[in-house]
Amino acid sequence: MTFAVDRLEGNIAVLEAEDGAMFDVPLAELPPGTRQGSVLRRDAGGAYCLDPEEEARRRRANFELQESLFIPTSH
Length: 75
Known about the structure:
alpha+beta, SH3 type barrels
C-alpha cells in the first residue's frame, strides 16, 4: 500500500492512504528526506520507506493533466 504525505504539521506528517483515509504519523517514524508530496510504502516489518519512482510517476501524471487543461485551442 502506498501513502502520500499530504502535509507536515510540526513533528507530525499527515498521510493519505490509497483509499483516501487520512491519518497522522510522527515524523520521527518516517525516513529522512520525507517532505510534503513524498510517496511512502510500508515494508513487511511495518516501517515506512520512500518510493521515489511512484512519486515521479505521480508528478508526471499531474503535470500531463495540467498541460492538457491549458492547451490553447484555435478558433
